[in-house]
Amino acid sequence: MTQVLVAAGSNIDPERHLAAAMRELAREFPGVRFSTAYRNAAVGFEGEDFINLVAAFDSALPPIAILARLHAIEARCGRERDAPKWAPRSMDLDLLLHGDLVQDAPGLRLPRPDLVKRPYMLGPAAEVAPAMRHPTLGLTLGELWSRFDRDAHALVPVTLTPA
Question: Is 139 helix (H, G, I), strand (E, B) or coil?
């Protein structure tokens, strides 16, 4: 089994869509653990605030199979695959880490490059898997988060209840 981290975010009715995504992730990946959810400003475009969290689970599935399941969950949450990249989202599920796998293929880069650049990914990832090592940087997520400049992008905790 491999430890997998997935970022989840929404800025269209985010409480409802994230609760639905949490329920779907729990059904697809038994034993999933969720970080605290955080409200933060949209990045890359003007829009409503996002709510983001990170899910952690163990899986024997290869990354491409996990990605297919994540896309199916996004679709069940109202996401259209051809939506613009920098635009409002009902659901965005991003594969951040798949154990120590390093992969650079069209549509799937592991580790996800913006994991260490975005506090709404790194902070929650460090919360659910602080001892997990970043496969190219060699530091744990907890170490990376402790070194992160958090003042540039405020995160506000939000209480979510899975639907």
Answer: coil
- Report the length, in residues, of the chain: 163
Neighbours of 31 (CB within 10 A): 10
Indicate yes or no: pTM above 0.85: yes
Tokens of 123: 């902070």
Residue pLDDT, tens place only, 127-145: 999 999 999 999 999 999 9
pLDDT band of residue 42 (cuts 50, 70, 90) is: confident
What DSSP designation does 95 have? E
Residue 87 CB neighbours (<10 A): 12
pLDDT recorded at residue 78 = 80
Amino acid letter for position 151: D
Q: Token digits for 124?
A: 């929650």
Q: Are 58 and 1 in contact (CB under 8 A)?
A: yes
Q: At the fourth CATH level, which superfamily is domain 2-158?
A: 7,8-Dihydro-6-hydroxymethylpterin-pyrophosphokinase HPPK (3.30.70.560)
Neighbour-count burial for 88-101, b at 16+ CB within 10 Å, e otherwise: bbbbbbbbbbbbee
How big is the chain by its Cα radius of gyration, in Å? 15
